[in-house]
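Audit log entry. Action: structure prediction of a protein-small molecule complex. Ligand: adenosine-5'-triphosphate. The ligand was supplied as SMILES and no pocket hint was given, so placement is left entirely to the predictor. Protonation state taken as written. Sequence taken verbatim from the request; no trimming, no tag removal. Recorded inputs:
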Amino acid sequence: MLNSFLGKRIKACGYAFKGALILIKTEPPIQVQIIIAILMTAIGFYLNITTVEWMFQIFSIGLVISLEAANTAIEEIADFIHPDYHKKIGLIKDMAAGAVFFAAITAVIIGLIIYIPYLF
Ligand SMILES: Nc1ncnc2c1ncn2[C@@H]1O[C@H](COP(=O)(O)OP(=O)(O)OP(=O)(O)O)[C@@H](O)[C@H]1O
């Protein structure tokens, strides 16, 4: 029983990893977020930010990429369920994009709080 529980969890991790790879390979918004994440990580090393600042930066990057991934999945569902134009589909897609917007604004504010003191 434990074996099958563990086996299922390991399989689920495999599917999740496969999903992450698909997102990285095929979705330009995710690719852009990953480039920004790499750039911010390089800047973090260059300016030698503190452990707490690293924690906030990594959390912000994870939050934005995760929500971008969820937004992509919602867009896929919307297009699958209703490929034609519909006001409601537009609303659903805009709301999902709004979630990414909230995360992105939060990440920018955190970034400013971390980096402004290093610049002045
Ligand atoms: N089927 C539809 N019906 C109504 N409005 C739509 C529909 N598809 C897209 N839209 C509108 O166009 C906007 C962009 O939709 P789209 O699916 O191209 O998202 P996107 O963010 O540009 O996609 P991607 O991230 O793949 O570039 C939506 O937020 C919505 O306002």
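Audit: result stored. Residues 29, 75, 85-86, 89-90, 93-94, 97 surround adenosine-5'-triphosphate (CB under 6 Å). The mean pLDDT is 96.
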